[in-house]
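sry for the spam today, last one i promise. struct tokens for design, 155 residues
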């Protein structure tokens, strides 16, 4: 049984100070100091912070968000329903492909590195030090754990 988890960006993630969605008349220009981090949703292991920069993750629309991951953070093997583009902003993000969490098989992605996974591709990730990644794509964004026991909400 595979558990699918969609991260919804309703009131718990969106903020009234959230920047507007860009339009032809109104660009969005942000510095890192203007990003307001919140606790990541419960579908991710505790300790992560998230900021939604653009879009609603539950809708079929473009999105951009950042995750701030603490040292020794692990995201169990999972898939996404849509293509996922990940750019490392700071730290080192260890990204691996496949249905089993194999740290020795992960590739160390340093700032400026990019990872692209197609819909349904199995992946896992971890950090050794604090790491910030930026994720973008076209939603809806979701997370399906290969092993339902890895769902952090069950722990």
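last one done:
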């Amino acid at each position: 049984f595979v558990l699918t988890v969609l991260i919804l960006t309703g009131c718990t993630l969106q903020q009234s100070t959230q920047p507007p969605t860009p339009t032809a008349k109104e660009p969005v220009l942000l510095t890192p100091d203007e990003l307001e981090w919140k606790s990541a949703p419960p579908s991710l292991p505790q300790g992560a912070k998230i900021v939604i920069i653009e879009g609603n993750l539950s809708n079929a629309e473009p999105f951009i968000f950042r995750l701030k991951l603490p040292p020794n953070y692990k995201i169990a093997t999972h898939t996404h329903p849509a293509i996922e583009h990940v750019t490392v902003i700071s730290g080192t993000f260890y990204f691996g492909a496949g249905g089993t969490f194999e740290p020795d098989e992960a590739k160390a992605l340093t700032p400026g590195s990019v990872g692209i996974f197609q819909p349904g591709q199995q992946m896992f990730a971890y950090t050794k030090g604090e790491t910030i990644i930026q994720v973008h794509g076209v939603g809806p964004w979701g997370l399906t754990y290969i092993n339902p026991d890895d769902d952090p909400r069950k722990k």
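The radius of gyration is 15 Å. ok im logging off now
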